[in-house]
Amino acid sequence: MNFKPIYAAALAALSFAGAHAQDVSAGKTVYAQCAACHSIDGTNGAGPSLKGVDGRKVGSFPGFRYSRAMKATAYNWDAAKLEAYIANPQTAIPGNVMPYSGLADAKQRADLVAYLQSLK
Ligand code: HEC
User: Fold this and answer.
1) For residue range 86-106, what is the model confidence (pLDDT) as tens digits?
2) Mutate to test the pocket of ligand 1, among 33, 37, 65, 101 (most ligand atoms within 8 A of CB)
3) CA atoms of 17 and 13, how far apart (whole Å)
4) 9 CA distance to ligand 1 centroid (A)?
5) Domain range annotation of the chain
6) N-to-C CA span, the chain
7) CATH architecture under which domain 4-117 falls
8) Of 5, 15, 70, 73, which is most buried with the most CB atoms under 10 A?
9) Backbone angles phi, psi at 42, to 5 degrees
């Protein structure tokens, strides 16, 4: 009998669940860098509200005047697209006008994306 693999899998599942909850709250802290321009309650400011951003089409939040580059981007936001945009906005969507140069720390980006995906 060998219980090791089962034990390892159970441990991995447990630590994954634990890490996920922490990621969202850590991401909320990282979001402080975004909050000056982005609300989470549906009101637009210097940037569009990020309420419900996960899954919506790029450049489509009602009432916000997006750049041409943003409006012309044809995909919907998901974890990978958000991650790439936050890492380097100009590389991900050339010509967009968000005045933010990018977040270099991969862990902070992952936490931030988890937080953004929690905004319904
Ligand atoms: C100084 C203001 C400012 C800061 C800080 C800022 N943004 Fe933005 N953001 C904008 C503007 C302006 C746009 C619209 C750009 C365009 O139309 O080209 C935008 C667009 C976006 C979009 C696209 C939304 C949509 O509706 O398609 C996302 C996602 C986004 N920002 C995330 C972030 C995140 C995450 C942070 C923090 C790491 C951040 N932004 C920091 C101003 C800002």
Assistant:
1) 999 999 999 999 999 999 999
2) 37
3) 6
4) 39
5) 4-117
6) 47
7) Orthogonal Bundle (1.10)
8) 73
9) 95, -5
